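User: Could you check the structure of this?
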Amino acid sequence: QVQLVESGGGLVQPGGSLRLSCAASGSIFAMGAMGWYRQAPGNQRELVAGITIGGTTNYGDSVKGRFTISRDRAKNTVYLQMNSLKPEDTAVYYCNGAIRMPGDNFRNYWGQGTQVTVSS
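Assistant: Sure, the predicted structure tokens are below.
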């Protein structure tokens, strides 16, 4: 079985920074495209940032220039560096990605989410 486990969330003041981590565990043959999503109360889940298997990145308009997604293949981990945080960034952040187990096709997985609260 494969699991995605997020960490790094918490409470931060406006203008501050946080780094989220998403570690994939289990029997992993390959990791494909990965991404971070977020969902605030009453809102739909939205894409924050994505990274392809080749390292190409894309970002939601509201976080461009402030957030950076990266991946460490050796550690099967994806990161989201969040700078200049705003109260409107408050949400549960979810890791998502395509992972292939040995002998299987790529399948889509979600993490359990980590809360990010931006408040003074």
